[in-house]
Amino acid sequence: MTLHRPAVVVVAWFCSATSAAAQQRHYTCQEAAQVVVAPAVTDTQARWAFSEIVGCPDGPAAIATRWRTTDNVAHLWTWNYLIRDQRIAEAAVEVARDAARPTELRLVALQTLISYFDSSRTMELSYLRNPGPFPHLASVTHPTTRVGTQPPAVDLRARVYTVSRELTTDPNPVVARAAKAIWQALTDDWPALALLPAGTVALENVCGQKFRITNHNDIDLSFQLVIGSPYHPKGIRIPSQASRDMTVDAKDSVQLRYADREIASAAVGPPCHP
Amino acid sequence: MAGFVVTGTIDGQPGTGTASVTVTPRDWSTKTVRSNHTTPGADGLPIHPIADSSLGQSSLDMEVRPDVGNYAVVIADGGPNNGFTYMTDIPFETFTIARVNYPAMAQGSDWYLLQYPKDKHVGGTTYCGQARVLTLPPLVEAHEGTNPANQPDSHVGIYINDVTRDSRVLTEGIARLDPKVGPVLTQIHNAAQADSRAMDGDSRNHLILPCIFRYFSP
Question: How many domains in chain A?
């Protein structure tokens, strides 16, 4: 009995200490959340609370609230380095779509959503403000891997993709251009996400071994033209709303493939006349 | 060297001639990629780092140069190659950013104060003391590449050098009636960024310390 007494004391002390630490952590998180959602905070408060909140179970909820209530992009951008959580992504989707929010904030929201596709890819804000003619994703080193208590949902990528496509018609031309650049870059890197409604891509024989591919979509697309057997696909990129003629060494027919699936085929036609 | 046989009509009379033509590859070794590099300091990196990755970060990108007239020539002589376009210079430019979290690594910062006063062994792990925090900025600069021309093993240095190397090879092939630079850009960018990021795990990574730091990770 006496042998057991010290062990009981140690266990009781450990449980008590653990409980006290957990209680302290709970209060810390509560206080940090209050600061994060407050409309105005001092630099000292912000430095403490904005760091602490990342490790709190409900931290992402407070960060999401901050997304919805502030126009100050600095901290929102920093949090994007540190944590991924479904609640933050939802808030970023809302902000990106909200025409009443400042342009710069909406661009940060779009940039944030790219990181939910792949945390090592981005588009710098300087680029989103004025995208180049060949949009693609930049690479970032040392991406964060911390995931909040509500990990990004399985369908988040598809939703972000849809948001980028929808915003290409946004009344704000800066947002629309940025969204178009993101939509194009995401389509090139994750082609399977692109929905190609019936009739938006056509493959037809012009004559002989000459074929015409037409892309009626509002985005450039990269296809593979499969010419007979053995399998040796030929890559071809068709700009949006454009056609390309190709003369290929096909015996019977050709197949047009996109994202590893066949979307059209056409037979070799009667000989071409000069 | 190749032999050519030319058949034509001169003054209404058919004629045939032969000629030897030597095609010498152009020298691209002196061509360089235009580089746009910025070093904005911490630029959003957290004042309370949660991992080594919070101490620095690089962004790597490239674009097609907008000044087409300075690197592309369109043949417009009405001859058989009319409209043919070829490159006379590398058509790409890099856009890179090296962020370094100077405020976090400053003497007396919250992160500095989070470290043990001196190197300390705890349960088989050696923790870095505060003095080592102050040695970090030049190491992180060299790792990310704040001065990439002199830091070939940095993230930015590797990226720019790879883009330059591959552009010298692939630009020669951008020649046709309607040249496509986009796919070449994507090919070069993807290879260069992958090589640059691989540095973290290979012998080019010089940011190796005999101890580990403590981080804010509640």
Answer: 2
Q: Choose among A78, A133, A143: nearest Cβ to B46.
A: A78
Strand order in the sheet with A221-227: A234-238, A221-227, A253-258, A261-267
Secondary structure letter of residue A152 according to DSSP? P
**Per-residue model confidence as pLDDT tens digits over A132-167:** 888 999 999 988 768 999 999 999 999 999 999 999
Domain ranges of chain B: 28-201
For an interface test with B, the pick among A63, A139, A222 (most B C-beta atoms closer than 10 Å) comes out as A139
Name the E strands within B65-206.
72-74, 85-87, 92-100, 120-122, 125-127, 175-176
What predicted TM-score, i.e. pTM, was given to this entire model? 0.85
- Whether A14 is in a domain gets the answer no
- Chain A residue with minimum CA distance to B60: A139
Interchain contact, A51 vs B46, CB within 8 Å: yes
For residue A222, what is the nearest residue in chain B, using CA coordinates? Answer: B183
Interface contact A141-B97, CB threshold 8 A:
no
DSSP character for A185? H
Residue A40, domain member (yes or no): yes
By CB atoms closer than 10 A (0-12, 13-18, 19+), residue A25 is middle
